[in-house]
Amino acid sequence: MSVSGFGAERQLTSSARTHALDNNDNFRFDDRFVCFDTRENEIWKVDVASGAETLVYGKGPKAVAASYVPGKDEIVFIHGPVGEPYFKSNRRGAVVSGDGSLRFLDVRDVASAVTPAGAHRGGSHRHEYSLDGKRVGFTYDDQLLPGYGRTLGMVADGKFVVLVSVVPEAEAKAGDLVMAASDSWVGRAGLMRAFIGKVKEKDGSFQNSLFVVDVPAGVDLSTAFAGDLKRFPAPPRGVVVRRLTTTEVSGIVRGSRDGKWISYLATGDDGTKQVFVISSKGGVGRQVSHVPGGVSGAVRWHPSDKYLAAASKKGVVVIDVPSGKHAVLAEKGGEALVWSNDGKTLAYNRKVGDYSQIFLVGFSGGEF
Question: How wide is the angle at C-alpha 152 spanned by C-alphas 125 and 251, nearest 5°?
């Protein structure tokens, strides 16, 4: 099905380097630039109008997963370690400004027997600012107690806290979470973070279900436990985890900007992987995509909260959430989808020759 609100596809980049969007928030606040990484040690931006590429940061070790900070000419990314191999429990969040100056988001301390309050002792990954710019959510991997699985962390007011408690899989009891990941904010203010949790069921099996962690506006970060050599970090008081589904889910879950809905992937009525949405308050999930052959992921809410974009075997599709109808936006396909802030452009990656390039297509809504 087609819709008149789609524009012609345009290849934005063509240089001999990888242009990874990594399914982040890659448009600057004014939509003039898109940031990307090369999967190595460089962060770049590209002018949406001219296609001119500018190196923003390339002075250190591994630098990946670039994303613009809301309302600012700043890019947050994963900063790897200096002088040691790059792995999941030794990464930090860094922010580079338009003039090239760098600051770190999180304080890392793996030397202290008792971790100082507000610091962590592991690695943070895929940093996502809340839309109001006040909180940064991410996944977290501990270095001092590696028997614990990945979980969620947050930085607010310069302090790190764990948001979700996990336990080692061998020690898990029914209802315990052993991993939390594939997360994103729900709403503008960072009061809810949706995620997929691997939970132990009563029959001893494990299932990947959809959860939300509520993080109140007035949460006292000083009540969090930063951890020691024997005890894993614990969330601050007042943080509450809610389970929303009892069925198997997958993909990176995404929250709508109005805070009402969460999207996720699950098995559809035809047996293929499709997009579902569920109220952030709980309830029954609703299948909103019926794409032949299913969808593969990269689901992103349009800023209006009326549409969802996704990658599929049919190409890049846009789904009208109220009706469940879909239209193929780019038949050749794409991955790592990201909407512009004004909702008029969708960017995505597609491999051309040896390199992943950035493509753009216009969108003005309409009836499907």
Answer: 75
Residue among 246, 239, 178 at smallest CA distance from 211: 246
Q: Which residues contact 141 (CB under 8 A, 6 or more apart)?
A: 88, 89, 122, 123, 125, 150
Chain segment 312-366, per-residue pLDDT in tens = 999 999 999 999 999 999 999 999 999 999 999 999 999 999 999 999 999 988 7
CA-to-CA distance for 264 and 279, rounded, in angstroms? 11
Rounded Cα distance between 327 and 325, Å, is 7
The owner of tokens 């004004």 is 342
* CA terminus-to-terminus distance, the chain: 7
- Residue 116 sits at φ, ψ, to 5 deg, of -60, 145
Q: Are 301 and 273 in contact (CB under 8 A)?
A: no
pLDDT digits (tens, 9 = 90+) for 121-167: 999 999 999 999 999 999 999 999 999 999 999 999 999 999 999 99
* Residues 110, 144 contacting (CB under 8 angstroms): yes
Q: Which of 303, 305, 311 is nearest to 262 (CA)?
A: 305
